[in-house]
Amino acid sequence: MNPSNDAFNYLCVMQKTWYGNNFRLGVLGGGQLGRMMIQEAINYNIHVHCLDPDSNAPCRDISHSFTHGSLTDFDTVYEFGKDKHVITVEIEHVNIEALERLESEGIRVFPQPHILKMVQDKGVQKSFYRDHQIPTPDFYLVENRAEIEQYQSEFPFMQKMRKGGYDGKGVTALKTAADLETAFDVPSVLEKFVDFDKELSVIVARNEKGETKAYPTVECEFSPEANLVEFLFAPAEISADVEERAKKLAIEIIEKLEMVGILAVELFLTKSGEILVNEIAPRPHNSGHQTIECNVTSQFEQHLRSILNLPLGSTRIIQPGVMINLLGEKGFEGDAVYRDLEKAMAMEGVHVHLYGKAKTKPFRKMGHVTIVAEELATAKKTGRSILNLIRVEA
To answer: Domain 7-109 belongs to what topology?
Structure first.
């Protein structure tokens, strides 16, 4: 069955065969996010086909089919997608023109290509917030390092490359004029430092019917060395007012975007109580991994529900939890060895997720651990001990 522009035929595809052997869901990216998406898709008999530039990607052996190829090459993405019924992503850095072509030919692409295009450029993303009166830290756009000099009187800034950054890469602090020597010499966003109390995240989903659901807000603690999430606490320890405002803001963003899929909205809670949008990610996100054990519906199942225009699942927390990223140890590169993993597994409430990556390197995401308990304080205590226990070495 070939995808069709005809609305009736599409409705039949989505309502009758999304769980059948003829339905093909294409995923651009075959990393850990795709892997966990597939684990949920299996429950619904959804056949997932993946494209990834790594021949040993985590999805390779569990996807219905795996294509080794570039995510940024037009022909590769187009050829991969043209026999799929729905295409989604687990990474934003993909060829937009190929997705636009596929969409024009009647293939459903979620999140929509124009949203991926906006998110690929942090300057366009920040301008969207400003143009739609969405609160975000003050910023300037510069084309190169030389242009930064005119803003020295307003230091400090976080400099963020407009394109190509991810997982803390492409971001550097500019505190004094001396830091200009190591500044990026590329088009960038200069974002004013925020005097924040907490870093928060809200995962929100929307389907084609316009139904939206937001997960309870979570709190993130970052590793200053790796610039990645070290701890995630669910739920965030915030007031009911902050919780309501954070979820309302996340829903406002996805509705203004008219986006279909799941969206992570990263936020700053300032010391004065203001909520500011840091960045968004239109896909399953690191700040939603705990939903597998902690919520009625995981973010990965919710993403599938949203892109297939199915009823969205409950986002209610069923138990508090802490999530820890398992990162490759500094100074080790090679075949991955997990030290003291079994000791952690012997602890109550510990759930281990390994991503199937054979090789480790410093700060590479190799897995995560979720710790659940009746009280968040108990989960935090166990989490702190696990952080100092498990080591991913070579």
So the answer is: Rossmann fold (3.40.50)
